[in-house]
Write a structure and sequence with these properties.
The structure is a homodimer. Chain A is of the alpha+beta class. Chain A is about 30% helix and about 25% strand. Chain A is built from nine helices and 13 strands.
Chain lengths: ~325, ~325
């Protein structure tokens, strides 16, 4: 997984954070503990890149705006936080300045905030540039109760493993989107891919329960679960038949589909997940290492199932 | 100036910030007043885009890293702030992953922090993607004394107008860089363009004086001064002969050269700028509007002299 190696390399070049910094790094968001402040601050930054995260002309500008913000909103949700402000950069080729394309992109950003239940999300500012390919970045500032942000590293043997929603719809929808010629014919899977939601309300409730660990499914259940297992120093086991599969998707697609933006989390034994959310118990935590899927025939590694931008590595 | 129109459009689509938000927007950094926190927080985000901010192969990766961070450091300097943390996104084409190119880019980021007197600047995290063109964004979180961040809007008639350093070197250096064939032959102007410095120490002192207004020279003296004048609701007048011109550059280049990262600021009449910095008094503030340059023949508008990414507009 070349992406992970690049990130490791960046972090090694920058060195460890001093203990005095009051910062947690390497989770869905960075957590800042600032003296006197009633909340911890959360910071996350994400980009969407033409040709990598989307194909020009296949996604509407409004859907791209939603996607650009949902990526970061979902990171805040996975920390059990509340989004406060965003800053953005946009790199705009001439085609993005034609007609109302860029207006619709901005409206999509706002729509994602409204759909996540954060209509008051405020724009702090940003940077605008021309360029050959469209690239947008969103930086979100959020808050979490002091010391209560949900981290990846808290899962313990005996914990139950849960996921919200159904998985596999995003990759199914992307395939249909790239295959179809009539872009007005948008079925449930295509809508799922184009207009995902960030689980802000669920994340806030998980911080109250509290969950022992959480991460969002952005690169695929297999890859994100292996990150949670590694951060927690445990083995995560998924029951083959327990994963909620999006209608029309295969079981393998449910395990590998990225851009789902559902929450994957662990609860202590006997603790029930918050009601009023579609949540499935898909497995448990054991001593050991790695992410595994178990069926009647035994266990196999799940780590490799997921999305990387740098597949060649 | 199409860039300004795009930014206006974005802000109108997002709407005004609520008064209760405790946020200043539209300056070099956003200022967040958070309850209980001993400092105001500063947030700024900037991008460097291949083909727009640099030509591949003409700038070394180390210089690009410096430039990527100096853009944001200079915004914090112009607010009289101190940088605390950065987050970054990098969009990496295959050529940026060859050899140690990307390592050197990261080393350049760190070098810019060290050169600005902020060797402890901590990396919070970020996002890595593949893509066809190199794009990097840096988001900086800084702090300023409560209510003491330097804004663009505080200049008053009678104030003196000052700038640090010498202007014109960056555009002169860029021209020589693009013309030369031997990239090892780097004269002072080329070094000035490739390795600018952020005036963090000067900014901190200006916040103590305090200066009435400040902005950094990122898009050219004319353009940045017109922004300061507009935000303050005043006229800014530059004396033709008073602008410090980088050796070899023309006077017009000194007025229009962007990426200088010097500080442009105003002080109440009779107030002296901090010692131990190369600072020139270049003019004054009057009632009226716009940025002007005055010589023995009269005054002419300075507003149009500067850099815009969207010159076609």
């Amino acid at each position: 997984m070349r992406e992970a190696r690049i990130i490791e390399r960046i972090e090694s070049l920058w060195g460890a954070l001093p203990d005095s910094a009051g910062v947690v790094r390497g989770d869905d968001c960075a957590v800042l503990e600032l003296p006197g402040l009633a909340h911890d601050l959360l910071i996350t930054t994400d980009q969407i890149v033409e040709g990598t995260h989307f194909v020009w002309g296949r996604h509407s500008p409004r859907d791209l705006g939603r996607k650009a913000l949902v990526r970061s909103l979902s990171d805040v949700a996975a920390m059990g936080g509340w989004p406060l402000f965003l800053a953005q950069t946009v790199c705009l080729p001439a085609k993005a300045l034609a007609g109302d394309w860029h207006d619709k992109f901005q409206q999509g950003l706002r729509q994602a905030a409204t759909e996540a239940g954060v209509p008051g999300l405020a724009l702090l500012g940003g940077d605008v540039s021309s360029g050959e390919r469209f690239v947008a970045t969103v930086t979100l500032v959020g808050r979490a109760k002091p010391g209560r942000a949900l981290l990846r590293c808290g899962a313990r043997p005996g914990d139950g493993l849960f996921v919200s929603g159904m998985l596999g719809g995003s990759i199914l929808g992307l395939r249909r989107l790239l295959e179809e010629t009539d872009t007005d014919r948008r079925d449930a899977a295509v809508r799922r891919h184009c207009a995902p939601s960030a689980r802000i309300a669920l994340g806030l409730q998980l911080a109250e329960v509290p969950a022992t660990a959480a991460i969002d499914v952005s690169d695929g259940l297999g890859l994100d679960l292996s990150r949670l297992a590694e951060a927690s120093g445990v083995m995560a086991v998924v029951e083959q038949g327990a994963v909620p599969v999006f209608p029309g998707a295969s079981h393998d697609e449910a395990l590998s589909s990225g851009e789902e933006y559902e929450l994957l989390f662990t609860l202590p034994a006997g603790t029930q997940p918050p009601e009023a959310h579609a949540v499935s118990r898909i497995g448990w935590i054991e001593r050991g290492a790695g992410a595994w899927v178990q069926d009647s025939g035994g266990r196999r590694r799940l780590d490799a199932a997921g999305f990387s931008h740098f597949a060649a590595g």
